[in-house]
């Protein structure tokens, strides 16, 4: 590296520029510019919806109480700090209904990181090796322009706009904080009274970082790189530094082993493309991924939340070889430039080291994500600036051009970042953008399909689930969603076919059996339904509600004994379950065992824990028991209690109508039937009942209209045909 006296006189047109860069630089203004720029760039994210892993925050109740550290720690021990911040946001956001707090926190973290970035870059130029270089006189301006580019670059949007990836940004906060205070302590000449507090603060940042995200563990070798490149001219370390370094390494290993079994992190994992990811093929694939990150940094176009990069099994794949060659050249260049410009070396090594946890031999289902470049970005910024400086350093008059370029690049990046944030407006917009760039990515179609379902665009969702299965026939969840659409459209054969495939592909077939059982039950293929219910209950024999569903199948088969026995099995699991109790009472009532049914019904009526629905059924059944006992006043008394719970309960209203018909009060019967028709006009039997009522009232023209309506709905209704024929002679 060329070492010159930075205090020497300068002549020419760049003199004033150097003076501004070195002497008149105002840090407060720089910080204000960065903060205001970030707020402006990210001003359009507050109306965005949640995405992808964000659901983990809102659906996981363990993440909703910031005071319950045991639960937060149990989720992921190395992510305690960001999880705690999510819990704080959740409690102050009306139960997660208001997202402004989440977004404001992410923006604030990005501002802090950008401030730390300017501090790190500034202090780098104060280190023993770098401060003696010609480039050092531009240190303050490089720090500002570099931090501004770090803040504005569109690659950073995924760690800011994507709520869950606060993991990446807050880990960077503590990483930067640890490096910044370490540099300040090493540079300080004010003795231990200043150094020790700075090193202590650095250690606190380190510990917080280790419990934010695993890539912070790279800070241990980073300290060594700092010492070798920035503080040692001859590539030698003092015994004190070696001792500190070894101590930190020991601490890192100790903390890691306390909370992680090393062999577990290298276990193969399946991804959404149906591929098995191993340490070997993940590393090989990263030779394609890392050049992509570099290209996105230099030319930030084609950003994609879910890049379609497939696993490569062979090192000799052409893309792998090309990427590997680029990385080798870059590393060789970093080593070569050690003698000439250590900032280039340091920036490149920062990139490789900080991204190594997520881009080496630890298999991760997703081989590429743009937020992984958030922490490495500062190394790329520094390396780019130093390379450009080297290209024009011999022509000092061109130095201002360097900074003009960096500011233009930052301004253009800000424009791109602001526009990129618009993609995150909704799940549909995000995944549509992914599909436009990764048109064969099965997961993208699946996620958009889910979003379309939420927006009640069922036909479009079906198209997306079809595409999901086309591009990945083993995408299990897509079969479940597609089956649900088929069920809603009464395409039961297609739904069963999808559940067949789900059961074939899934390791845990439990839910598949249950879903298919429900379809079989709905289309009255009762034997098949019972087989699937039994298969489900073999795997989950404590599910009371499924026992009751199975009992309902027996009910539809008029097998009351089996229905009763199945319900009793449910009660063996929980004898206080009021839903099971009232169901048993119902089946005993259906068998005409009124005296046996009443004690079970009364248990529900008298229970304080019974649900409103259980009480509704209980009152209705008890009223019906008294109806059959011809105690109509008592029957009406319990029907009235049921009506207080639900005025539109159809079985109850039918019972009301029956009792009034029995009593010969056809006007009241008609009024009840009209109440049923207010919410159910598609049941031919409702119109049949109204027609019969009008016949009894001798309103034959009205009866004719009612019976015609019943036959329009179902021409095969024998009773409606018979009644309609019987009133011809009365029609006027």
How would you describe this structure in keywords?
732 residues, mainly alpha, Serine Threonine Protein Phosphatase 5, Tetratricopeptide repeat, 3 domains, two-stranded antiparallel ribbon, 35 helices, elongated, disordered N terminus
End-to-end Cα distance, whole Å, is: 112 Å
The percentage helix is: 55-70%
Strand order of the largest sheet: 1-2
Number of helices in the DSSP assignment = 35
What is the count of distinct domains?
Answer: 3
Low-confidence stretches: 1-13
Taking Cα atoms only, what radius of gyration do you get, to the nearest Å?
A: 36 Å
Major sheet description = 2 strands, antiparallel
User: Which structural class do the helices and strands define?
Assistant: mainly alpha
Please indicate the percent range of residues in DSSP E strands (runs of 2 or more): under 5%
| Global shape | elongated
Q: Tell me the total number of β-strands.
A: 2
Mean pLDDT value: 92
Structure description:
- The protein is mainly α.
- It folds into 3 domains: 15-48 and 99-422, no CATH class; 439-646, Serine Threonine Protein Phosphatase 5, Tetratricopeptide repeat; 647-732, Tetratricopeptide repeat domain (Serine Threonine Protein Phosphatase 5, Tetratricopeptide repeat).
- Helix content is 68%, strand content 1%.
- It is built from 35 helices and 2 strands.
- Strands 1-2 form a two-stranded antiparallel ribbon.
- Helix 2 (27-41) packs parallel to helix 17 and helix 29 runs antiparallel to helix 30 (632-645).
- The longest helix has 25 residues, at 100-124.
- It starts with 14 loop residues before the first helix and ends in a 6-residue tail after the last helix.
- The model is unreliable at 1-13 (pLDDT under 50).
């Amino acid at each position: 590296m060329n070492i010159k006296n930075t205090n020497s006189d300068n002549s020419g047109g760049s003199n004033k520029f150097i003076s501004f860069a070195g002497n008149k630089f105002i840090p407060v203004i720089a910080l204000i510019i960065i903060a205001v720029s970030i707020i402006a760039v990210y001003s359009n994210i507050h109306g965005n919806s949640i995405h992808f892993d964000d659901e983990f925050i809102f659906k996981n109740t363990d993440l909703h109480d910031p005071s319950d550290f045991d639960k937060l720690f149990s989720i992921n021990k190395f992510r305690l700090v960001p999880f705690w911040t999510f819990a704080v946001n959740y409690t102050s956001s009306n139960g997660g209904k208001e997202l402004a707090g989440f977004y404001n926190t992410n923006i604030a973290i990005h501002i802090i990181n950008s401030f730390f970035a300017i501090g790190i870059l500034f202090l780098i130029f104060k280190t023993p090796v770098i401060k003696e270089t010609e480039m050092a006189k531009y240190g303050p301006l490089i720090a500002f322009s570099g931090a501004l580019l770090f803040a504005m670059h569109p690659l950073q949007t995924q760690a800011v706009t994507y709520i869950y990836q606060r993991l990446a940004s807050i880990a960077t906060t503590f990483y930067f904080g640890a490096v910044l205070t370490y540099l300040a302590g090493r540079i300080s000449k004010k003795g231990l009274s200043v150094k020790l507090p700075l090193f202590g603060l650095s250690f606190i940042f380190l510990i917080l970082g280790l419990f934010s995200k695993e890539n912070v563990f790279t800070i241990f070798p980073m300290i060594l790189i700092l010492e070798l490149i920035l503080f040692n001219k001859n590539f030698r370390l003092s015994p004190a530094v070696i001792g500190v370094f070894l101590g930190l390494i020991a601490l890192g290993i100790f903390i890691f082993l306390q909370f992680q079994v090393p062999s577990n992190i290298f276990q193969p994992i399946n991804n959404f493309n149906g591929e098995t990811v191993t340490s070997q093929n993940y590393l090989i694939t990263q030779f394609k991924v890392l050049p992509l990150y570099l290209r996105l940094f230099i030319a930030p176009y084609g950003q994609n939340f879910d890049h379609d990069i497939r696993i490569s099994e062979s090192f000799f794949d052409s893309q792998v070889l090309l990427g590997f060659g680029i990385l080798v050249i870059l590393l060789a260049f970093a080593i070569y430039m050690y003698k000439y410009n250590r900032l280039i070396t340091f920036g490149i090594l920062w990139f490789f080291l900080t991204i190594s946890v997520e881009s080496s031999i630890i298999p991760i289902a997703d081989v590429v994500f743009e937020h992984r470049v958030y922490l490495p970005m500062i190394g790329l910024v520094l390396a780019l600036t130093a390379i450009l400086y080297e290209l024009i350093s011999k022509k000092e008059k061109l130095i201002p051009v360097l900074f003009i370029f960096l500011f233009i690049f930052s301004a253009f990046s800000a424009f791109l970042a602001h526009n990129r944030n618009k993609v995150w407006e909704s799940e549909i917009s995000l995944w549509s953008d992914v599909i436009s760039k990764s048109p064969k990515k099965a997961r993208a179609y699946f996620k958009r399909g889910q979003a379309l379902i939420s927006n009640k665009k069922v036909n479009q969702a079906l198209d997306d689930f079809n595409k999901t299965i086309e591009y990945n026939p083993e995408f299990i969840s897509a079969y479940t969603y597609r089956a649900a659409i088929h069920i809603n459209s009464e395409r039961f054969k297609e739904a069963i076919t999808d559940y067949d495939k789900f059961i074939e592909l899934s390791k845990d077939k439990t839910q598949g059996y249950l879903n298919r059982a429900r379809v079989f039950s709905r289309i009255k293929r009762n034997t098949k339904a019972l087989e699937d219910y039994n298969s489900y209950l073999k795997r989950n024999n404590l599910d009371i509600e499924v026992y009751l569903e199975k009992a309902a199948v027996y009910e539809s088969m008029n097998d009351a004994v089996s229905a009763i026995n199945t319900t009793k099995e449910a009660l063996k699991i929980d004898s206080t379950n009021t839903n099971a109790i009232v169901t048993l009472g119902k089946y005993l009532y259906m068998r005409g065992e009124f005296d046996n049914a009443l004690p079970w019904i009364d248990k529900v009526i008298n229970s304080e824990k019974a649900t409103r629905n259980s009480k509704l059924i209980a009152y209705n059944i008890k009223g019906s028991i008294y109806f059959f006992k011809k105690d109509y006043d008592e029957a009406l008394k319990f029907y009235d209690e049921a009506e207080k719970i639900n005025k539109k309960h159809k079985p109850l209203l039918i019972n009301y109508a029956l009792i009034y018909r029995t009593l010969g009060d056809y006007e009241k019967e008609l009024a009840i039937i009209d109440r049923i028709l207010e919410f159910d006009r598609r049941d031919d039997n409702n119109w049949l009942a109204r027609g019969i009522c009008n016949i009894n009232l001798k309103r034959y023209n009205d009866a004719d209209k009612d019976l015609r309506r019943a036959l329009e709905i179902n021409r095969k209704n024998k009773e409606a045909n018979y009644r309609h024929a019987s009133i011809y002679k009365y029609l006027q």
